[in-house]
Amino acid sequence: MRRLHVTGRLRAVAVGALLAVGLTACGGSGAGGSGGAGTDAAAADLLVGVSMPTQTSERWIADGNAVQQQLTDAGFQVDLQFAGDDIPTQSQQVDQMITQGADLLVIAAIDGTALSSQLQAAADAGIPVISYDRLIRETPNVDFYVTFDNFQVGVAQANALLTGLGLQTEDGSPGTATGPFTIELFAGSLDDNNAFFFFDGAMSVLQPRIDDGTLVVGSGQTSIEQVAILRWQQETAQRRMEDLLTSAYNDGTRVDGVLSPYDGLSRGIITALQNTGYGTAANPMPTVTGQDAEIASVSLIAQGVQSSTVFKDTRLLAEQAVIAATAFLDGGEPQANDTTTYDNGVKVVPSYLLPVETVYADDIQSVLVDSGYWTAEEVESGQAG
């Protein structure tokens, strides 16, 4: 990892900011509380550019807002930009952040290979880069990666699918069902490195059940290239599910379960299923998994429509990004808890992985509402307040 040449002023600022982040994380007064005015005034000299991929997903809106809020609470200036799922827009926004004098960049890339020239410019200017939840690939100029344990996300989704089918219980014990069950597989966008971790994690659980005949993929489509959804688009997932129902299920075969790696895709899949007659007493909704605990999907889980979601607390991810940013601005290096897994094609990027949690209907109150992530009213309405 390249060492940064940080002035004494920046080092003092960053130490103060780290203390402020620590107070905030522990529920103290934070950067704006008692004794924080001096830190705020000094840290305000530092600019952090935050590049998020899109505002079409409430998950990324929440991430951007959480990172911005926690950096602001630590006293930093923040330039938060959303790229609208458009690669040239994100490239231009990152260019502008560098030109405008950003001291550090936090980037959730649309395409993990599309920012090489921008990252080289950042490296030339001595600007550290934190890859946020999506690994930036094929460049040496990424310094740290903050994310969740993405392989375990896939494992959790596969286990939730087996649980919904009755093949096992929520604690992993054998269930009462024996199968065979007919399922379909969906994966994320091939330009997102996480999609491969999610799919590989899920298939590590599902493939043995496919091999022994407990699970049957009705369409026969089992490779990630066959089941991937570009840009994670809900409408694309709906169209694919509609096509599958027309081509592989026109003989009356029932879909029992769908592996979906993201709540937005899940809602598109569910719409296609409902439009084909699923979701009635005579033809119940298949087990459909998800990820990100988006409020519309949490509401569907509460209603018994979607089966589960994997909750990734973006507040904790934002907190870790701020801790890593502060370490860099202090002239040091963030603490990694994984230094072997995330090879971006040029180097293994030091990473900090956060845990994930599966949420079923009976977990919504304890995991999402009691923690303040969503309110009971939001769950009931399916809309963020």
Automatic annotation (TrEMBL):
What does UniProt give as GO cellular component? outer membrane-bounded periplasmic space
Annotated InterPro entries = Bact_Solute-Bind_Prot2, ChvE-like, Peripla_BP_I, SBP_2_dom
Q: Where in the cell is the protein located?
A: Cell envelope
Domain Periplasmic binding protein residue range list: 48-332
Q: Which GO terms describe its molecular function?
A: carbohydrate binding
Q: Which Gene3D superfamilies match?
A: 3.40.50.2300
Its domain of life reads: Bacteria
User: Which keywords does this Swiss-Prot/TrEMBL entry list?
Assistant: Signal
Please list which residues make up the signal peptide.
1-27
Q: Which PANTHER family match?
A: D-XYLOSE-BINDING PERIPLASMIC PROTEIN
Official protein name in the record: Sugar-binding protein
Which species expresses this protein natively? Answer: Pseudonocardia petroleophila
